[in-house]
Write a structure and sequence with these properties.
The protein is of the alpha/beta class and about 475 residues long. The protein folds into 2 domains: about 5-150, Leucine Aminopeptidase, subunit E, domain 1, CATH 3.40.220; about 160-480, Zn peptidases (Aminopeptidase, 3-Layer(aba) Sandwich). Helix content is about 35%, strand content about 20%. It contains 14 helices and 19 strands. Strands 7-8-10-9-13-17-14-15 form an 8-stranded mixed β-sheet, sandwiched between helices. Strands 1-6-5-2-4-3 form a 6-stranded mixed β-sheet, with helices on both faces. Strands 11-12-16 form a 3-stranded mixed β-sheet, with helices on one face.
């Protein structure tokens, strides 16, 4: 990371230290006078008269050595708004120099719970950058000196730190190039999670063949790298309640196989394992914050390559469920990985629900762009919970249809089903219909197609471009609000 945030404690305001103050929605300065010199107070008051007070944040340079930042806490702000304010603050002070800011927490008059914690959390999420492979590292430091009584509690700090680390771990995994984070290396990184209390089991090709996971194995058979299924278990509940299950697509690089992708943008296919990264980041967060819930993460890790041993269009494979699949397009590979992972998860863990995440279809980007993930589900209650959690953390989802008329488009003349809809259209829905066939016991299930959300070339409210870690905060909110 190019920025290190040092949370220090101090009781006195150094006159030359940059200052952060919180005001009400009108930028009323009367309550902030004690933090400022008379000249600073007059100067800022005069400037505010010509400012657009609809804005949330102003940075005033009161001298060559000191800035005063005013943050307006508007009425009816949501948690995500506070976090976006923190991200905006980082963007305004991220000028390539070492700097120190004193945050006067006592200037917060709002009764919003953990306001400063959410503000700093948004700042941290925005500060992420992946510069691991740059020979010249940026070493600037932003020091935050927090004074007053409104500092985040230790419990809140633990939660925010757990979410930051889980999100950053997911972003790191997605950001790694394919020559580094191939399935063999991915497995090594997942086994390091055992130190946080997660039970990690690795199923290699020998074990997968014995289990009969030939849908997953078929995708990876063209690669010199191994193919794996990895499970991560967190047992944080005091009882033996059924776990919550999260399944992720981990195609570490996707050439499309013999149904070759166009050369343009193929370099982006390093992030075709983003669904698995979300699951991994979530499990790390749950372990770090000692979540009082039983949960399991399951990821299928493969590399979809072209070689003399690669899967061919027209091949028929037998899945773990016993159902046969005609592979008409080798670039519709993620659903083959998920097919075996879903049935395995349902059979082995008998969970309360299963949520799978995958960068599954380009069609969902055509439909929803980069504003919403596609949500497909067989359960209205679970769908509602996911939707509401997404609204609260600004990781939004939109429910899409499932219907028997779409389902029959996946029927094959030569096998139980085919892996694409040759009629055309409804690419995301027919992919979800395919996945639903591998939920055998009517377990509540939701599929999140995150193809438009996992990676952002331009950045967003809480990320500066690149891997977003989409889904870690969404699923944590879902768990925290409904299952702990």
């Amino acid at each position: 990371m190019p920025v290190k945030l040092n949370y220090l404690k101090q009781t006195k305001n150094n006159p030359s230290t940059n200052l952060v103050l919180f005001s009400n929605d009108k930028f009323n300065m009367s309550g902030l006078k004690k933090y400022l010199s008379d000249s600073e107070y007059s100067y800022i008051n005069d400037l505010l008269k010509s400012c657009d007070l609809k804005k949330n944040l102003f940075v005033f340079e009161v001298s060559s050595k000191k800035k005063i930042v005013l943050v307006s806490i508007k009425n009816n702000l949501k948690t995500s708004d506070i976090e976006s304010l923190g991200a905006e603050f980082f963007g305004r002070i991220n000028n390539g120099k070492n700097s120190e800011y004193l945050i006067a927490s006592d200037s917060i008059s709002s009764k919003f719970e953990n306001l400063l914690g959410h503000f700093l959390y948004g700042l941290k999420l925005k500060s992420y950058a992946f510069n691991k492979y740059k020979s010249k590292k940026e070493t600037r430091v932003i020091s935050l000196i927090i004074t007053g009584k409104n500092k985040p509690s230790e419990k809140a700090q633990l939660k925010f730190k757990a979410l930051e680390e889980g999100t950053f771990f997911a972003r790191d995994l997605v950001s790694e190039p394919g020559n580094i984070l191939h399935p063999d290396e991915y497995v090594k990184r997942l086994t390091t999670l055992r130190k946080y209390g997660l039970k990690v089991n690795v199923y290699d090709e020998k074990k997968l063949k014995k289990l009969g996971m030939f849908a997953l194995l078929g995708v990876g058979q063209g690669s010199i790298r191994g193919s794996y299924l990895v499970t991560m278990e967190w047992n944080g509940a005091k009882n033996n309640s059924k776990p919550l299950a999260f399944v992720g697509k981990g195609v570490c690089f996707d050439t499309g196989g013999y149904s070759l992708k166009p050369a343009k943008f193929m370099e982006d296919m390093t992030y075709d394992m983003a669904g698995s990264a979300t699951v991994v980041g979530l499990m790390k967060s749950l372990a770090l914050r000692k979540a009082k819930v039983n949960a399991v993460g399951v990821v299928g890790l493969v590399e979809n390559m072209v070689s003399g041993n690669a899967q061919r269009p027209g091949d028929i494979v037998k899945s773990y469920s016993g159902k046969t699949i005609e592979v008409l397009n080798t670039d519709a590979e993620g659903r083959l990985v998920l097919a075996d992972a879903l049935t395995f998860t349902e059979k082995k863990y008998k969970p309360k629900f299963i949520i799978d995440l995958a960068t599954l279809t380009g069609a969902i980007i055509v439909c929803l762009g980069s504003e919403y993930a596609g949500l497909f589900s067989n359960d209205d209650k679970l769908s509602k919970q996911i939707f509401e959690a997404g609204q609260k953390v600004e990781e939004k989802v939109w429910r899409m249809p499932l219907h028997k008329n779409y389902d029959k488009l996946m029927n094959s003349k030569n096998a139980d089903m085919q892996n694409i809809n040759y009629v055309g259209g409804a690419g995301s829905t027919t992919a979800a219909q395919f996945l639903q066939r591998f939920i055998l016991n009517k377990t509540p299930w939701a599929h999140l197609d995150i193809a438009g959300m996992a990676f952002s070339k331009y950045g967003g409210a809480l990320n500066s471009g690149g891997a977003t870690g989409f889904g870690v905060r969404l699923l944590n909110q879902l768990i925290e609000e409904n299952y702990e």
